[in-house]
Amino acid sequence: MQAWDIEFRALNVGYGEHVVLRDVNAVLPGGKVSVILGGSGCGKSTLLRHIIGLSRPQAGQVLIGNHDLFGLPQKEFRRMRRHMGVLFQDGALLGALSLVQNVTLPLTEHLNISKDLVREAGLRVLRMVGLEDFADFYPNQLSGGMRKRAGLARAIVAEPRILLCDEPTSGLDPITAARMDELLLSMRKQYADMSVVVVSHDLDSLRAIADHVLVLGDGRAIFSGTLAQLEASDDPYLKQFLRREAGDTTSAMHDAPDPTVRQALDRWLAS
Questions:
Q1: Among 40, 48, 99, 131, which is most buried by a count of CB atoms within 10 Å?
Q2: Contact, 10 vs 61, CB < 8 A?
């Protein structure tokens, strides 16, 4: 299965007279880890919302695997979104549910499979992020880093073709942040046809995981290319940005899914 590119064509986004993104043109290559980088308020999270399909642009296109996301019929639009997994900045776990219940929400909401198979699938992805022993704990019993890892497990439980991560290392200590980077790289290797998009301002994380970098500034795409190309750039804005961000100090093993779960996922994704 070929990995999906994500392409922005003349994308413009604004709210009233406030322009957030203007004439953004870029391609995030399929099967790679692409990092969207930029300062606060530059439009990173807005761009992520448009990839997910939560917001519609004023003008321009978002293409997923050569399909115009906002030009699709409603049924095809919903089907496309089923192929996306999202890791939210705060993990977005529900406090009344245990960890394994949180992680398996995409399965219990959309698949008609037994509770035993659902739990097995949840334990499998929790094992991948090192949290199997905490399956029956509740979010308030876990550290921030553990909640983020649980959020990552939920994002991949339905084996998405696109994994979207909003500031996955934000608020984490350096050791925990490095662990999150390792997990993201592990997911990319395990799911070869999965495209990973990470919104970040963390340069250490960028250097650890990025195959491709998109830099936003003043609502525009000012750079799109490899990390090596970014660091070799003579562009004054990019050099200043990298120096400024460098001074900011804030900052598993593979288990095959049960074939019954795999078949149910295939039916759901194709419906």
A1: 99
A2: yes
HSE-CB at 161 with a 13 A cutoff on CA atoms is 20
Nearest-angstrom CA–CA distance, 93 and 164:
16
Which token pair is 192? Answer: 């070869």
Backbone angles phi, psi at 155, to 5 degrees: -65, -25
Distances (CA, A) of 246 to 19, 34, 206, 243, 268: 28, 19, 11, 5, 44
pLDDT, tens digit, for every residue of 176-199? 889 889 989 988 888 888 999 999
- The domain tally of the chain equals 1
Residue-level length of the chain = 271
Model confidence pLDDT, tens digit, residues 3-51? 899 999 999 998 877 889 999 999 999 999 999 998 777 888 899 999 9
User: Residues of the chain whose pLDDT is less than 70?
Assistant: 245-271
Q: Tell whether 12 is covered by a domain.
A: yes
- In a domain? residue 145: yes
Instruction: Output the pTM of the full model.
Output: 0.85
C-alpha dihedral over 27, 215, 206, 165, to 10 degrees? -60
Residue 81 sits in which domain range? 6-270
CATH number for the domain harbouring residue 111: 3.40.50.300
- 1 belongs to a structural domain: no
Structure token pair of residue 268: 């759901």
